[in-house]
Amino acid sequence: ESVARAHLNISARLKIGEQMHDVQAQWVVLATGAVPAALMAAGLCERRTPSGVAMRTYVRNPKMEGRISGLEVLWHKKLSKGYGWIFPCPNGIYNIGVGLANSHSAKGDDGREAMAEVNLRQMFERFCAVYPVAQELMSSGEQLGPLKGAPLRCSLDGARFSRPGLLVTGEAAGATYAFTGEGIGKALETGILAAETITAARDTMMTDAQARASYEAHLLELKPRFDLYERANEVNAHPWLADLVISRAKKSPRILRRMSAVLEEKGNPGNLISVRGILRLFIPIP
């Protein structure tokens, strides 16, 4: 486990086990995921609690090859305020899990944000019970590791993006979509932006402040897209709306295509809960 800490004379100080290691570098890229320890050590954490929580495992099941060709997401009333997913990896291996949106939106007795009373293991069991594909994947496959839980940081919210000599990227910066929990592609995208910023700073002799301003500006250009997924996340917060969307999608290939386009980042997720979007569940509107 490593914790990065900005320092006046040392670019980064890493703790591995009980030993401290000082590392010299012109830039540090903080890509430590959703656990806030490194953000807090760097003085960049604005929200310690996560946006959501998830639990997943990996399963090898060559029999399912060709049957699961892309990301599959299931919303169901028995997964209230949450969802389940499956997506293929190489060599007949699949990532399967469940996620809970707005997991820490409730207030505890002390006034602080507290996690909702939801058992993710039970949610995973319900996902497999209500979705035959998930049930078959688990029952006839080889589970490659235990179910592991993890926090999610979404919507480019909850952290500052930089400080002198340091750029925050990936889920540490909140680069996960709220509605779908998709963060792998967004982590790669923000990581590329960080690399391009550092390369440009070296090649053009930009100052630290100029490089950081450029990086933050690029992230903010992505923010409207994240905001649309945050808006669509209302589907998870209101089970009746999720039931409405799902029931209509089962009966309409047109609506199913619209929902698939959202997952593929080819459609506007904000339209799912707009007045116009809800009307389109019943009446085709050009």
Question: Would you write up a description of this structure?
Answer:
There is one protein chain. The protein contains 9 helices and 13 strands. With 286 residues, it is α+β, with helices and mostly antiparallel strands. A hairpin with a 7-residue loop joins β5 and β6. Mean pLDDT is 81; it is low at 1-9.
Write the layout of secondary structure elements.
Layout: E1 12-16, E2 19-23, E3 28-30, H1 37-41, E4 52-60, E5 72-74, E6 82-89, E7 93-101, E8 106-107, E9 113-114, H2 120-130, H3 132-140, E10 142-143, E11 148-152, E12 162-163, E13 166-168, H4 184-204, H5 208-232, H6 234-237, H7 239-251, H8 253-263, H9 275-280
Parallel strand pairs: 3-13
Antiparallel strand pairs: 1-2, 4-7, 4-10, 4-11, 5-6, 6-7, 8-9, 12-13
